[in-house]
């Protein structure tokens, strides 16, 4: 009997094994093609954004093909494995629930656009800029922690995509890339209150004009897209009286990436303007007033 006839008889005797081998060969072939196309695109596409989206698109197509081939083989050709697959499904679902949720999360992120690379988000108590999203993890460049203000800490954080289903996702940049912030300016009692108010507002308007004009246009888009009322984006000032000083609270809007820079410019501008008044307006500091000094009786013995 020739080898070809032996091979034919063997395939007829073990159809399930042949089907499984074909299935595995298809899976390997798809994975090889996906990796080849991703490397080809990475080397030949100059634009970073296009390159990234193309690689993710190829990866998604590969996953879809694998799912379709798996459904085709496990519900058709490989009939003998149906019972085994049914028994394994429950165990796999429990064991790999985190992985399944992560893949589901990546699909949800992709289609609903919860966030995308380049966005600044806070999720599961971690804040940072999104630098990559794959089928399992979201990768972020962390900000904050031991670093003051919104500056990079230097740590790269990988977070499971499953967390999009487990709590709120704060997006600093989607739809409205501005945030409201505030600073407090303590002014000494006896200062010219109206002049102090004028100095603070003029400094705010001169520094924040660009942000205000841009945010007005963005907020109009927000009002049209969501059920939300109009908001005041111009700088506002409020006054409160404390035991030691008059406290002016300046509320303003700024670019979410330039929060520290904006506050620094405001503090410098306000401080210089107050100094130029030569005492008419003075910054306050913590003071203590002695209300009464007890009398001390000293007796001297000869």
What does this molecule look like?
The protein has 302 residues and is α+β, with helices and mostly antiparallel strands. The protein folds into 3 domains: 8-95, no CATH class; 120-171, SH3 type barrels (Roll); 178-275, Alpha-Beta Plaits (2-Layer Sandwich). 50% of the residues lie in helices and 19% in strands. The protein is built from 7 helices and 8 strands, in the order H-H-H-H-H-E-E-E-E-E-E-H-E-E-H. The chain has helices at residues 3-13, 15-44, 48-77, 82-95, 97-112, 193-225, 259-275; strands spanning 120-123, 126-133, 137-143, 152-160, 169-171, 178-187, 236-241, 246-255. The strands form 2 sheets. It has a 5-stranded antiparallel beta sheet. Helix 2 runs antiparallel to helix 3 and helix 6 packs antiparallel against helix 7 (259-275). The longest helix is centred in the last third of the chain and has 33 residues, at 193-225. Residues 77-85 have low confidence and may be disordered.
Quick structural gist:
This protein is of the alpha+beta class and 302 residues long.
Order of helices and strands: HHHHHEEEEEEHEEH
The name of the CATH topology of the largest domain is: Alpha-Beta Plaits
Give the name of the CATH architecture of the largest domain.
Answer: 2-Layer Sandwich
Strand content: 15-25%
What's the overall geometry? elongated
The helix/strand class is alpha+beta
Low-confidence stretches: 77-85
> Would you count the extended β strands for me?
8
* Number of separate helices: 7
Distance between the termini: 138 Å
Quick check: average pLDDT? 80
Widest sheet: strand order?
Answer: 4-3-2-1-5
DSSP helix fraction: 40-55%
**What is the CA-atom radius of gyration, in angstroms?**
33 Å
CATH class of the largest domain: Alpha Beta
Kindly give the count of domains.
3
Biggest β-sheet, characterized?
5 strands, antiparallel
């Amino acid at each position: 009997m020739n080898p070809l006839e032996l091979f034919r008889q063997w395939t007829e005797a073990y159809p399930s094994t042949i089907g499984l081998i074909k299935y595995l060969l298809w899976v390997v072939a798809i994975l090889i093609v996906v990796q080849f196309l991703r490397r080809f695109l990475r080397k030949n596409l100059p634009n970073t954004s296009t390159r990234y989206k193309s690689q993710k698109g190829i990866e998604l197509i590969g996953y879809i093909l694998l799912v379709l081939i798996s459904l085709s083989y496990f519900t058709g050709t490989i009939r003998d494995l149906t019972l085994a697959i049914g028994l394994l499904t429950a165990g796999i679902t429990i064991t790999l629930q985190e992985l399944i949720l992560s893949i589901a999360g990546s699909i949800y992120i992709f289609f609903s656009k919860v966030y995308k690379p380049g966005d600044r988000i806070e999720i599961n108590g971690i804040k940072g800029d999104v630098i990559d999203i794959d089928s399992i993890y979201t990768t972020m460049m962390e900000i904050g922690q031991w670093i003051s203000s919104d500056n990079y800490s230097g740590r790269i954080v990988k977070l499971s995509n499953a967390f999009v289903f487990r709590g709120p996702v704060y997006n600093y940049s989607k739809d409205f890339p501005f945030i409201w912030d505030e600073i407090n300016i303590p002014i000494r009692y006896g200062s010219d209150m109206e002049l102090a108010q004028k100095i603070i507002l003029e400094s705010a308007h001169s520094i924040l004009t660009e942000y205000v004009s841009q945010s007005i246009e963005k907020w109009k888009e927000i009002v049209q897209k969501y059920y939300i009322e109009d908001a005041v984006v111009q700088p506002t000032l409020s006054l409160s009286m404390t035991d030691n000083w008059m406290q002016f609270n300046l509320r303003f809007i700024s670019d979410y990436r330039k929060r520290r820079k904006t506050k620094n410019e405001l503090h410098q501008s306000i401080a210089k303007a107050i100094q130029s008044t030569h005492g008419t307006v003075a910054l306050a500091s913590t003071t203590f007033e002695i209300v009464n000094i007890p009398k001390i009786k000293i007796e001297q013995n000869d």
